[in-house]
Design goal:
By secondary structure, this protein is an alpha+beta fold. It is built from 4 helices and 7 strands. The radius of gyration is 15 Å and the shape is globular. Coenzyme A (COA) binds next to strand 4, helix 3 and helix 4.
Length: about 160
C-alpha cells in the first residue's frame, strides 16, 4: 500500500478507536488491558494527548505517541502504539502509521521512541525491527493475562 489518508484524531473518533482496540483486549496479549476500554476512559485518554503527543487515525487503524514515563527527565522519550483492525492486517497500514509517527516525533524534537510488545507478538516485533527499532530489553513475566505470565519486549528507535 503506497498511500492512506492519515489525519489527527478528533474526539468523535473515540468510538472507532475503541472498536479497533477492544477486539484485542478480549482476544490478544498485544495489549495488557483486561477489560474493554469505555468511551469515557478513551475520551479522557484523548484529552491527555496534546499537540506534543499526537494520536493519528486512518480508516480502520490508529496510532499514538504517549509519554514514556512521567518524570520530567523523560521528556525527550515517547512510547508508540499502533492498532490496525484485525481484518486489515498485512496491507502495509501499520508500517505507514509508524512512518508517520516517526516523522511527527522527529518534527516534535524527541530523541527516541520506545515500543513495547508482548514477547510472542512477532508481527509487531517484526514491524518495528523493519523500521530500525532495536530490541533493548525483555522484562520477564511482568504481565498476567489468559492465565499465563507474559514477558514484555522493549524496542527503541533513536531519532
Ligand atoms: C502489529 C500491527 C500494527 C501491524 O500492522 P499491519 O498493517 O498488519 O502491518 P504491515 O502490513 O504494515 O506490515 C509491515 C511489516 O511488519 C511485519 N509484520 C506485520 N505483521 C506481521 C505478522 N503477522 N507476522 C510477521 N511479520 C509481520 C512484516 O515485516 C511486514 O512487512 P511485509 O508484509 O512486507 O512482510 C497489526 O498486526 C496490529 O494491529 N496488531 C495488533 C496490535 C499490536 O500488536 N500493535 C503493536 C503494538 S502497540
Amino acid at each position: 500500500m503506497d498511500l492512506i489518508d492519515i489525519r489527527l484524531v478528533q474526539v468523535e473518533d473515540a468510538g472507532s478507536i475503541n472498536a479497533i482496540y477492544n477486539y484485542y483486549v478480549l482476544s490478544s496479549t498485544c495489549t495488557f488491558h483486561l477489560e474493554p476500554v469505555t468511551i469515557q476512559e478513551r475520551t479522557e485518554w484523548l484529552d491527555g494527548h496534546s499537540d506534543r503527543y499526537p494520536v493519528i487515525v486512518a480508516g480502520c487503524s490508529w496510532a499514538s505517541l504517549s509519554p514514556f514515563r512521567p518524570r520530567p527527565a523523560y521528556v525527550g522519550t515517547v512510547e508508540s502504539s499502533a492498532y490496525v483492525h484485525y481484518l486489515h492486517h498485512r496491507k502495509g497500514i501499520g508500517r505507514l502509521l509508524m512512518l508517520d509517527l516517526i516523522s511527527r516525533a522527529k518534527a516534535l524534537g524527541y530523541h527516541s521512541i520506545i515500543a513495547g510488545a508482548e514477547a510472542t507478538q512477532y508481527g509487531s516485533i517484526r514491524l518495528h525491527e523493519g523500521l530500525g527499532f532495536e530490541h533493548v530489553a525483555q522484562f520477564k513475566q511482568v504481565g498476567f493475562k489468559f492465565d499465563t505470565w507474559l514477558d514484555t519486549v522493549f524496542l527503541q528507535l533513536m531519532l
